[in-house]
Amino acid sequence: MELKPQIKSIYRSHTCGELRKSHIGAEVTLSGWIHRKRDHGGILFVDLRDHYGLTQVVFSGSLKSKVDTLRVESVIKVQGEVIARSEETVNTALDTGEIEVKAESFEILSEAQVLPFQIAVDDNAPEALRLKYRFLELRRKKLHDNIILRSDVIYEIRKVMYSLGFHEFQTPILTSSSPEGARDFIVPSRVHPGKFFALPQAPQQFKQLLMVSGFDRYFQIAPCFRDEDPRADRSPGEFYQLDFEMAFVEQEQVFEVCEKVFYEVFTKFSSKKVSEPPFVRIPYNECMESYGTDKPDLRIKEKIRDVTQIFTETEFKVFKRQVEGGGAIKALAFEVDSIPSRKYFDDTVKFFEELSGSGVAYLIFDGDTLKGSISKFVSQKESSELREHLCLGGKAVVFLGAGKEKEILPHMGKLREKVARDLSAFDKQQYIFCFITDYPMYELDEKTGKVVFSHNPFSMPKGGLEALNFQDPLSIIGQQYDVVCNGVELSSGAIRNHSPEIMYRAFEIAGYSREEVRRKFGGMLRAFEFGAPPHGGMAPGIDRIVMLLAEEEAIRDVRCFPLAQTVEDLLMGAPSEVSEEQLREVHIKLDLPDKEKG
After folding, report:
1. What is the pTM of this model?
2. Which long-range contacts (CB under 8 A, 24 or more apart) does 39-47 make?
3. Whole-number mean pLDDT of the chain?
4. Phi, psi of 472 (to 5 degrees)
5. Helix axis angle, 251-269 relative to 542-549, nearest 10°?
6. N or C: which end of the chain has fewer CB within 10 A?
7. DSSP summary character for residue 474
């Protein structure tokens, strides 16, 4: 909640969002930007805007002609009397809509040049232009409100964390390189030639060291830096997270803190229905089987169902080959009030083909009638078993995909989301949270075929050292977990590995020698050798939390100064070249790629 500031100065007695009927007759001073101008002959109406809102100001006579020459977005100071609007001109869309200010004098504080794009209306200016003039785009109400929402969300998070006994500490920005799944941003050292700092991908090691240092509950609103390609739900270069860690805890106690934070924040800043704690827990393997993703949108009730057994004697050759070759048949069923058009099914099949490189079949259950792309190959027995297995009532559409389970499930997951959106098969007025648990500790790198960490390398494996020594690495479960809301991953976390021997062995399986682990994580290993408590935590993403609450599709719409999709700061001109002297100071010679070769 925004506290009311002391705003009185020579520039204003009130804000542009403050005046009401109770102020009628008062002499006031306002300052702000010219948002709009409307010329009504002998009278000029100006919507004056500041951070707090809009007030309509009326100029006439000589004042009108002077203001008329100013461009919109010029900054002026106005003095005048608050008067009531006539009944027919009251603007119910504005908080100040029952009054206006009759200008008696004004002063130009700053004139605006010709605008590169409009502020009062969205004129679909190119993104690059908007980011170059981001300070102008931030004047638009929706974006302006998003940034205030972000500030308020962070303030509320801090209140909740302190109420739960946490203390806020800051961890270093200049640190060592760490294999945490993305490229580091590296910073050359002037004092130590040939050596580099790295910007932290996360405060992972430091927060664990704080637990070893005897602090019990740590948090910070932490900046994180990763040199990775941009995505709509991930800001290139940097992002912010609520980083927290707790000593002497098990997984459920970490979950309780997370649930408290999300429930308090989302109920405070949204009128939508929010999952009440405890949130649903879904093991990773079950999640993939049911939703085809580890980021399920639980607003969609329909799950992916295995129907392989129903088609063991199918006449449909595509399914028959898959079943005989060890593949699976997966179904998605949606009950509908009316059957979609043939074009809809054709478009959906095309979507799936472009997505997966393979086809998807569909069946339409309409009372006792069966239609669809493969209906002529489906026997009465198979039709009845499908209806019973999928719990279908009257009208329903069923999509059927076939292939190796690991390959077909992600495609069916994306199809599930698309069809649900198309058919409006879920309630958008809710936030449904869940924990995804029991992630595999390791996975095979598709390019190299080597065993690599699948999630967080600092997690404690279930079964500890015994599991690492005697189990197939791909069967080992890490005490790792994610928080997902409406199909968006909001947080990752884990119960940490606090044993040096377990850490050495865990990294050995992923191809790291004992010496390499010691070199990369010497500080943490030293700490573990002097008494380390069991500990765990999470790191919910601030940007994604605000993105969901603001109902935006892209991270850039909830950040003040985001990088462009080209990973450039178009406003400040970064990255930029530096002088030869600066390069010499940090002992660097450039070996640039041949521009002609790209």
Report:
1. 0.92
2. 39/68, 44/68, 45/100, 47/120
3. 94
4. -60, 125
5. 40
6. C
7. G
